[in-house]
Design goal:
Blueprint: E1 7-12, H1 14-21, H2 41-47, E2 49-57, H3 83-103, E3 108-110, H4 114-123, E4 126-133, H5 143-150, E5 153-157, H6 186-198, E6 201-202, H7 209-218, E7 224-225, H8 242-250, E8 254-257, H9 261-264, H10 276-290, E9 295-297, H11 316-325, H12 330-350
Parallel strand pairs: 1-2, 2-4, 3-4, 4-5, 5-6, 7-8, 8-9
Helix pairs in contact: 1-3, 4-12, 10-11
Bound molecules: zinc ion (ZN).
Zinc ion binds near residues 205 and 206.
Protein name: Dipeptidase
Organism: Roseibium litorale
InterPro entries: Metal_Hydrolase, Pept_M19
Length: about 350
């Protein structure tokens, strides 16, 4: 079998999944191929998943029974989270990443620079870049931001789809505009500046539209939405409007294509029979609006309902084939698969301008 093309992906919830499963009947090894979830090391190898932003997301009500099916309509899933609880839970996810790295004997590496990501991809080890999805773990004085940065945090979404001290998120609504509430708070503006200072990429996914424009006004870095699709193709509040895409293009930023079926489909339905061509459609639209250098992948592995044809990380080569079948050239496919992500991370870490 030919070695699959490497993919560096903008979003997965694998650390959360492994922390939630720890000590339960679902507990599994990262090094054994499983049919559960979307990511483990054997399936990364099979699909060419060479690395990505590994999100640390703190669910509302962290004490609840997570073996029950997740109901996105349950308001309890959007309750505000206490900072101490969030920081503690985030520590558990960092600990999980570090234990996996240690046990991997060089096959998994927590990367702190783009250079380290490049070396990892070259060496065939999985490059893990730590990301925060919803900054509840960070206090208003940003002491935890310093600590987390020292632990390897390199990107951060100020808000998930619930309110916190920094901003307001978008609901999982369809059809709906992402313009649904107030923008960043003063503390949120200060967070963006503190992240700029540390070279931590600000992620716009889950932020509402006023918050998006506040970041655009405040941040010195390219505008990046790690796992969001095109609103013109699927009118979910989670997707990006044409005006937002224009701002991303102007700043040399990036949008990562999310594989969640309800964010892909024109009808917004949770339908797993969604064909890979629907992902291709978003990709083509985003390339048209953003240009070839500003589109990446933001799978949402382990946090979404995937098209059956993709199945899990091992199915990535089928998606890249779907791009080929649609006439995308090899250079464009490589850019979408990993080059554009590394490029925008590099510009965020090494410059203080756009
Ligand atoms: Zn998300």
């Amino acid at each position: 079998m030919n070695k699959p093309l490497p993919v560096f992906d903008g979003h997965n919830d694998t650390l959360l999944k492994f922390v939630l499963e720890k000590g339960t009947a679902q507990e599994r090894s990262f090094f054994t191929k499983s049919g559960a979830g979307h990511i483990d090391l054997p399936r990364c190898r099979e699909g060419g998943l060479a690395g990505g932003l590994f999100a640390m997301f703190v669910p509302s009500n962290t004490g609840q029974d997570f073996s029950r099916p997740y109901n996105p309509a349950d308001p309890a899933n959007y309750a505000e989270v206490d900072q101490a609880v969030a920081l503690n839970f985030t520590s558990a996810m960092i600990a999980m990443a570090r234990k996996i790295e240690r046990a991997s004997e060089g096959q998994v590496r927590i990367c702190r620079t783009v250079q380290e990501i490049r070396e990892s991809i070259e060496a065939g080890s999985l490059a893990v870049s730590l990301h925060i999805e919803g900054a509840e773990a960070i206090d208003k004085d940003f002491n935890a931001l310093e600590t987390l940065h020292a632990a390897g945090l390199r990107s951060l979404g100020p808000v998930w789809s619930r309110k916190n001290i920094f901003a307001d998120g978008v609901p999982m609504a369809f059809p709906s505009s992402p313009d649904n509430g107030p923008g960043l708070t003063d503390t949120g503006v200060a967070l963006v500046k503190a992240c700029n200072e540390l070279g931590i990429l600000i992620d716009l996914s889950h932020l509402n539209e006023k918050g998006f424009w506040d970041v655009a006004r405040t941040s010195r870095h390219p505008l990046v939405a790690s796992h969001s699709n095109a609103h013109a193709v699927c009118a979910s509040a989670r997707n990006l409007t044409d005006r937002q895409l224009e701002a991303i293009r102007e700043t040399g930023g990036l949008a990562g294509i999310n594989f969640h079926v309800a964010f892909l489909r024109e009808d917004g339905r949770h339908d797993r029979t969604t064909p890979l061509e629907t992902i291709v459609r978003h990709a083509a639209y985003l390339v048209e609006k953003l240009g070839e250098n500003h589109v990446g992948l933001g799978s949402d592995f382990d946090g979404c309902v995937l098209p059956l044809d993709l199945k899990d990380a091992s199915g990535l080569p089928r998606l890249l084939d779907a791009f080929r079948n649609a006439g995308f050239g090899e250079e464009l496919i490589e850019k979408i698969a990993w080059r554009n992500w590394l490029d925008v991370l590099e510009r965020t870490q090494t410059t203080d301008g756009r």
